[in-house]
Fold this protein.
Amino acid sequence: MSTEKNVQELLDLLSAKGNDTYFGEDVSVLEHCLQCAYFAEQSQASPSTIAAALLHDIGHILHDLPEDHTRQGKDGWHEEIGAKYLSQWFDEAVTEPVRLHVAAKRYLCATDPSYITKLSDASIESMQVQGGIMSRDEASVFAALPNATHAVQLRRWDEEAKIVDLKVPGLQHYLPILRAALKGAAADRVQ
Ligand code: FE
């Protein structure tokens, strides 16, 4: 199967289903993902990290729980669903920041006193079903993971990427970046 075709299909999936509301936020899932990728690109992140930023919430589109599932005490595990799905085409440089972006929120709450003030009410609420603020031991284990730094970076953009009516590039802008981040693509291996 052509990976080229898969990359376009990924963008089509985001485009078709991303306009749903993003529970408790003022932007849609698609707007949120585009803003997150925009902040990553503005920070001169690698193609893999930009791809992770764009695709980090794809699990929200893939699971079939109601949008307010965290309010009902259910964790949709969207980070695990998304990382597993993306692993068909991307390696750990993309899938691990995606898989760890929820843990990164719990980590940042434990280690950066100013971070929690940046969280939306929905993000604070969902953290209760996601395991709550990390203990000191959990934070040390997390910090030692190979992609922890990228996950933390992604998480900070994630918090910013909720700005109503922010003008950012559309999905097609990211096609070459996603191609460069595919498994086996050479462009990203130096970073
Ligand atoms: Fe997000």
Observations:
- The mean pLDDT is 88.
- Residues 32, 56-57, 158 surround fe (iii) ion (CB under 6 Å).
- The radius of gyration is 16 Å.
